[in-house]
Amino acid sequence: MPYTDHYERDIYGIIAFWVRNNFDHGRFFDREISHYELELARTNQYMIQRLGSIWEKAKSKKTDVGILIDEAKHATREFHSLLTYTMDKALRCEVIISTPQSLLDHMIREAEETISVFKLIQSGKQVSPADATLHENHFWLRQMADHLRYISHYLDPSNHELHDRVREMTKKFDNLFLQANALTTMIRRPRNEVLPVLHSFNQMVIKEAKALEAFKLELDDLIKQCAAVTTSPPDLLEHISREAHHLWRNLEEQVIL
Ligand SMILES: [Fe+2]
Ligand SMILES: [Fe+2]
């Protein structure tokens, strides 16, 4: 698991995680823009280059953190605008792309989460363990269920066994997401302690997110060896494995970052 071995939790590592996330989205989106949409393709290419260079800066750890976050926040906002503009066009059937609207929305939500994480870092505010884990569950469990749906979207229909397995896991993550929603309103603010129900829910999600990460990495190997019939971008599974890893790590550490 190469990404896990190099998963650094210092401030630069956190910035790198989020910037890389949006950089990857740009690269995945690039494959799905029709040649009729030259302007969109060019603007997206520009975003890929911009986010890629900020990711390099985050990895080299040489730029001042304050300057780096400002730059990352600015670029993410621009990318967010491009995605929301495209989403609006896609909903009106005015753009030729093969990306489903819900996948655009998925990327838009991650861009929004990126900006709030950067703002949280800049504010220096502390989030209580109960607030942090409820937030992480609420945000990421929907993303995890989405990932499984996109695995299905790209997998060729001939993979009957794999489709069954993915459907089963999707149901599980849909249920976990519903439970996270319920707990978010049941456990009211101020949330000064992690109640036993929340603790046991977190443990269940950690276990399931680890299993999901392992499954995604298993599929990642098959796709990279061209051994599964799929139209998935070659490193999409590694990307979504990293997000599953991010979820369980944050739940273990009881943080939003
Ligand atoms: Fe992502
Ligand atoms: Fe995602």
Automatic annotation (TrEMBL):
This is DUF2935 domain-containing protein. InterPro entries: CotB-like. SUPFAM superfamilies: Bacillus cereus metalloprotein-like (SSF158430). The lineage of its organism: Bacteria, Bacillati, Bacillota, Bacilli, Bacillales.
